[in-house]
Design a protein that fits this description.
It is a single chain. This protein has 710 residues and is α/β, with parallel strands linked by helices. It folds into 3 domains: 190 residues, Rossmann fold (3-Layer(aba) Sandwich); 239 residues, no CATH class; 128 residues, no CATH class. The chain is built from 21 helices and 12 strands. A 6-stranded mixed sheet has the order 2-3-1-4-5-6, with helices on both faces.
């Protein structure tokens, strides 16, 4: 490839970048509108919540945090694509290459080779040569050297590396020819998830130091570069991809000896003619020209498509990630809101049963009390019909009955029962909330929910035990009103004694009979009236107990349920909007690539039968078509080659389970796919053992407004 060809290709890349920036900018404008609508929904929910906050049982902080978390998700999504898009705009004219690899893989050596440097950055090893991000130019390309992965303080290095890689057009991933490591494979998987085209460079580590003759060096080099050996190492590394459901066999793989390549650089710079003469030797045995050729070919053949893809993916990737998060969060809130609703209805049933049982207990208590007192009346009247101190005697009898204590015991028992009902309801809710949190995450392969079950469970601490927040809200159940009962009876006794004195004007026999009858009648009337009053007071206190505890909890559960439903609706609406816009972006991107390859007319013809598209950038693209046998195989093959993604096509059908099975690549049979239309959940019955299903599920969630369960 001549420099002229590369210059022309870079010029075409620049034109494509301008087109890509226009595409991304249009999408950003649409997304801004979607996110503003989501923010309005969040504000409405916050206003609804603050108008009647859940104060009594301590849920306020949890719900406020959820509102804040959703707002943060919206802000982060906007910030993610806005910042990255601005970085790309600043480097619109540059085709960006980022170097990735673990510490000591040879990134800094490659930099010295490409820049023909002085070698000062080579061999720093454990000192971690690339502590910071460095940029340089090579052949018109902007090359970024990022911190190595898998070293001490590696988390910060990895974050810096991936932040830089997000805006790259091409990633060069360095390995060494010793056994591939799991940490490298995991890093490569994350690189693939960014959706970037990748060239893998295997840096062969043959010793060239010391007094080794050039003939021995060449012999060792030839052995190290043996085709079968290199192929076996490539296969070893690619097998790691199986664990992630990715096929890495189509990734470009080049072997080179970077230190030998740098020896060629030193030879060229040397003033000694004998050393200069060795340049071609080191250049040849290093295979560095093959590496340079592959990078330039990538720019020449795919560069203009890659640049459009970079801009499309800078918008698509955060949308895909947010879509998964929002779908799970919405499902979690719906499920947890339903649990709260179910517990509220269960508590209402328990309340109804408790009230009915409480009324019966009060009735039974009062009937026993009346019977007991009426028995006392007959005996008392016989013994005290002519007793001027009858009022005092009757008062002693009433006192001995400990009516206040017995009433208080009854009310205390009922209050304990109410506490038990609330405790059991909250305990059940706690258990189910924990289960739905863990179960949803495990069964959907997605991320944790916003709801913190442990914090929700914390509501119970304010409900349980005497003297808690709820109990404090209840008026005194015994004492103030009940204290008037026995005192009133003593006063009635005094009135009776005064009435008895008037009977002494009649004959003794008549007087005695009338005195007994009068006393019995007065005592009976007094006991009936007083018992009716106590009965009424007990029922009032039962009502206060129910309203002060059970109804208070029911009100709180209703508030929680309403806010959760509002949160779920906001999340679901945002997810649906993102899903629709993501499909639009995918179709626009696919059409642009098709037009660049086939021309506008041919591309339009190929796209006419395509209904919509779902993508996982850098991994796979799925096109849905309207009619069977209408896909252009040449079109899909070229698309696959240019954007380095597996392309599959599925025909839309009214048989939804069959259609979903097709989207899932036939990994799940139609009979194992069930739709719950009421909850908008599609249940996928599978053991999840096939990792390929994960990527297919991510495609499915872009195409259908159903949350995925299993």
């Amino acid at each position: 490839m001549s420099q002229t060809d590369l210059t022309r290709a870079l010029s075409e890349c620049y034109e494509s970048a301008k087109s890509g920036y226009e595409l991304a900018s249009d999408e950003r404008a649409v997304l801004d509108k979607i996110l503003k609508e989501a923010e309005e929904g969040i504000r409405d929910t916050a206003i609804e919540y603050k108008a009647s906050p859940c104060e009594v049982i301590g849920i306020g902080e949890t719900l406020e945090n959820q509102l804040s978390d959703i707002q943060d998700s919206v802000d982060n999504l906007r910030l993610s694509f806005t910042e990255d898009l601005e970085i790309l705009k600043e480097d619109l004219e540059k085709f960006s290459v980022t170097l990735f690899g673990r510490t000591m893989a040879g990134k800094s050596t490659l930099m010295e080779v490409l820049t023909e440097g002085d070698g000062s950055a080579i061999g720093m090893g454990a000192q971690r040569t690339t502590r910071d991000i460095r940029k340089y130019e090579w052949n018109g390309l902007s090359v970024t050297d990022v911190p190595g992965i898998g070293a001490f303080e590696g988390e910060e290095d990895t974050r810096l590396a991936f932040d830089a890689a997000k805006t790259a057009d091409l990633i060069v991933f360095l390995l060494t020819d010793d056994a591939p490591q799991a940490v490298e494979a995991d890093c490569f998987r994350q690189v693939k998830d960014l959706g970037k085209p990748v060239i893998i460079i295997m840096n062969v580590k043959v010793s060239i130091d010391g007094n080794k003759s050039m003939k021995l060096v060449e012999r060792d080099m030839n052995r190290a570069f043996d085709d079968e050996r290199i192929e076996e190492i490539r296969k070893q590394f690619c097998r790691f991809g199986d664990a992630y459901g990715q096929d890495w066999n189509n990734v470009t793989f080049v072997a080179a000896h970077l230190k030998a390549a740098y020896e060629a650089v030193k030879c060229e710079k040397s003033e000694d003619p004998e050393i200069q003469a060795n340049k071609d030797f080191w250049n040849r045995i290093s295979r560095i020209d093959d590496l340079k050729q592959k990078i330039c070919e990538e720019v020449l053949v795919r560069g203009k498509y890659i640049r459009v893809k970079t801009f499309a993916d800078i918008i698509a990737n955060p949308m895909i990630e947010s879509l998964s998060d929002l779908d799970l969060q919405s499902r979690m809130n719906i499920s947890q809101g339903k649990i709260v609703s179910d517990k509220k209805h269960a508590l209402e049933k328990r309340k109804k049963l408790f009230v009915s049982d409480g009324m019966k207990r009060i009735e039974s208590f009062m009937m026993r009390l009346k019977t007991e007192l009426r028995t006392e009346i007959a005996i008392f009247a016989e013994d005290h019909y002519n007793d001027k101190m009858a009022d005092i005697a009757w008062g002693e009898i009433i006192k001995s009955k400990d009516l206040e204590g017995r009433c208080k015991t009854l009310l205390d028992d009922m209050e304990q029962e109410v506490d038990g009902i609330i405790h059991e309801t909250i305990r059940e809710m706690e258990s189910e909330l924990r289960y739905v949190s863990v179960d949803s995450v495990q069964r959907t392969f997605l991320t944790p929910a916003l709801i913190d079950a442990k914090r929700i469970v914390g509501w119970t601490s304010l409900l349980l035990g005497g003297g808690g927040t709820v109990a404090a809200a209840i008026l005194t159940l015994t004492g103030v009103e009940m204290a008037a009962g026995p005192v009133g009876w003593v006063a009635a006794g005094i009135g009776l004694a005064g009435g008895i004195g008037l009977l002494f004007l009649e004959s003794r026999g008549d007087k005695l009979a009338k005195a007994r009858a009068r006393l019995e009648k007065e005592l009976t009337e007094s006991v009936n009236a007083t018992c009716d009053s106590i009965w009424s007071q007990l029922e009032k206190n039962l009502d206060r107990l129910v309203k002060g505890k059970i109804d208070l909890v029911l009100d709180e559960l209703t508030k929680i349920e309403n806010v959760m439903n509002s949160l779920a609706e906001t999340q679901e609406t945002l997810a649906d909007s993102l899903r629709e816009e993501l499909r639009t972006l995918n179709m626009t991107f696919t059409t642009k690539i098709a037009s660049a390859v086939f021309g506008t007319d041919e591309a339009q013809k190929a796209m006419d039968n395509i209904q919509t598209a779902a993508r996982i950038p850098g991994v796979c693209t799925l096109l849905t078509k309207k009619e069977a046998n209408a896909a252009n195989e040449d079109f899909t093959n070229k698309l696959k080659d240019l954007i380095s993604e597996d392309i599959s096509v599925v025909t839309e059908t009214e048989d939804t389970p069959e259609y979903v099975s097709g989207i899932l690549g036939g990994l799940v049979e139609p009979q194992d796919i069930v739709f719950e239309n009421e909850t908008k959940i599609v249940i996928i019955r599978t053991d999840g053992s096939d990792i390929r299903l994960f990527n297919r599920l991510r495609l499915l969630e872009q195409l259908m407004p159903y949350k995925i369960g299993g």
